[in-house]
Amino acid sequence: MKSQDITSTWHDYFSAKGHTKVPSASLVSPEPSLLFTIAGMVPFIPYFTGAETPPYPRAASVQKCIRTEDIEEVGKTARHGTFFQMCGNFSFGDYFKEQAIPMAWELLTTSVQGDPATGLRGYGLDPERLWVTVYEHDDEAYEIWRDSVGVPEERIQRFDAEDNYWHTHQPGPGGPCSEIYYDRGPSYGVEGGPAADETRYVEIWNLVFMQYRLSEVRSQTDFDVAGPLKSKSIDTGLGLERLAMVLQGVDSIYETDQVRPVLDRAAELAGVSYTSTEDPQDPNHAVDVRLRMIADHTRSALMLISDGVRPSNEGGGYILRRLIRRVILGMRLLGVEDAVFADLIAASKDAMKAVYPVVEERFDAFRATAVREEQAFLRTISAGTTRLESAVAQAKQSGSPLTGDDAFALHDTYGFPIDLTLEMAEEAGVSVDQATFTQLMTEQRNRAQADAKAKRSGHANTEMYHQLLADSPTAFTGYTEEATESHI
Ligand code: ATP
Ligand code: MG
Ligand code: MG
Ligand code: MG
């Protein structure tokens, strides 16, 4: 099943169940305290908090998302993209878990051709490959899974509040979650369900049951429940790419129909082969990880540009700049020194245009943005290379490693990536004082975080949304870019 068919089946199913189809909001978050839209629920936050009255009691969407917090996972796990699409169904004080759970199951397991009795089409997953988790004290959800849906008890696992509880870290709404996992089979890892192995058992869908009023919250796992909420809500998120991976029978989200063509083009340009390995011991692992990262980041850059983000030195523009630079650097480390980004985003455009026609309609403008950015970065690299070469020559002469200060200055002042410093120094037979470099990076990061905190401290109300999103199991922290992208 193609990605676009996953979307249409999603909307057909939830329309038949009385949900209003809501188009994806922009990747630039409609919620002002967040840089990017990080989950399907973000555009609906005012309805969940009661700040606004929802115009419909139930809604469904397929939301474009960016999660920079997952950037270091990209290419290393099979399941984390910086850009992905989250299919969500939402109830604002309407149905609750007794309907949300059976609907999720029905949609996943009904055949692709459709159920003759109901006429509804589903994703046709083998029920025996599905595992579910519930919050350890949520007997209600446990019983719905076991008794109404008929999931055998061996495949229902209870997780604690660390994983399966949602709240805002403040007095207010909260509630348990339940997640659905797909068993990819014994060749992907050990038996025992998601509690044993989250690589073999891949989380595909998270259901959040907003159900209680919390009077005090001391930590993620330590809180007091004051009583039930008058109006209970549902927030779910199914990862479209993860489902596509399962339905298309491929090993990772980077091999699905909307991403694989970019990966293939990158491999072709670099003259390397992709072997789809997840094993770090495999000799081709580093190349595969790099290709997966390049494919993912290229798509994220295209989608950000198409939502109006432009490379810059702050906010979302800075994230875009880093994504593009990581692609170019990745290609360079695969041996490609020419300008190739226009070629890569063209491959991504072709893979995405069926679902997002704007990427084709306005491609000339998007490509121009990308090419300008690439040219600027290639100039930076060539200027940095001259400086690096003289630092390397000096180090060689004195028989000592390239200093951490030199590596840091190259990075900090000249924008020259540390990965490239390491690789080029190694080629010249010179080692690098990485410990000092890392220490200087950490000090700089701490300064940046202190600055960011000082800037935010005047906005108490936006902080609440940060917390809301930081701790939502269908969401992620807003401003962690500095901490997670250490190198570029
Ligand atoms: P994981 O534990 O695998 O990191 P998560 O618990 O952080 O996932 P949620 O916040 O529950 O994910 O998001 C809801 C769904 O969105 C997930 O069940 C998954 O299918 C999908 N999803 C989350 N993060 C990503 C990502 N980085 N790339 C692709 N899909 C994702
Ligand atoms: Mg996650
Ligand atoms: Mg999870
Ligand atoms: Mg989850």
From TrEMBL:
Main localization of the protein described in the UniProt heading: cytoplasm
Molecular function as annotated in GO: alanine-tRNA ligase activity; aminoacyl-tRNA deacylase activity; ATP binding; tRNA binding; zinc ion binding
Cofactor binding, note field: Binds 1 zinc ion per subunit.
Keywords: Aminoacyl-tRNA synthetase, ATP-binding, Coiled coil, Cytoplasm, Ligase, Metal-binding, Nucleotide-binding, Protein biosynthesis, RNA-binding, tRNA-binding, Zinc
Entry GO terms, CC: cytosol
EC number: 6.1.1.7
Residue ranges constituting the Alanyl-transfer RNA synthetases family profile domain according to the UniProt record: 1-488
An individual GO BP term: alanyl-tRNA aminoacylation
Localization, UniProt: Cytoplasm
Catalytic activity: tRNA(Ala) + L-alanine + ATP = L-alanyl-tRNA(Ala) + AMP + diphosphate
Family, similarity comment: Belongs to the class-II aminoacyl-tRNA synthetase family.
Name of this chain's protein: Alanine--tRNA ligase
Lineage: Bacteria, Bacillati, Actinomycetota, Actinomycetes, Micrococcales
Gene that produces this protein: alaS
Coverage span on the entire protein: 1 to 488 of 898
